[in-house]
Specification:
Helix content: 25-40%
Largest sheet: 2 strands, antiparallel
Order of helices and strands: EEHHEEH
Strand content: 15-25%
Number of strands: 4
Amino acid sequence: LGRGVVPEPVGRYNEAWFSLVELQLHTGRSHQARRHLHQINHPVLGDNKHGDKEYNRWAAARFGVRHMYLRASELTFTHPSRGERFTFSMELPEIWRRALESFAVPFPER
């Protein structure tokens, strides 16, 4: 959805690169998105298990909070007994807006 760069050294890199991606999960496998992103060398920022420790420390120091930058913007499921389909969505949290602005990543349109 967007990418940006911060001209500050992080770990062994001279500048910090960030991407905002959208994933659509089809199963409820535990840590599915985190594992897949780690395997392609694009770990989730703030992920202590599958992430990049240097980037995580940098982000925690910059924003004063440690958390994973992974969230569901929309969740849809079918009620198991009634068969009704439910969809829930949520706006982008303020800390994410600050992070995206700091990372020079454009805000998503929706």
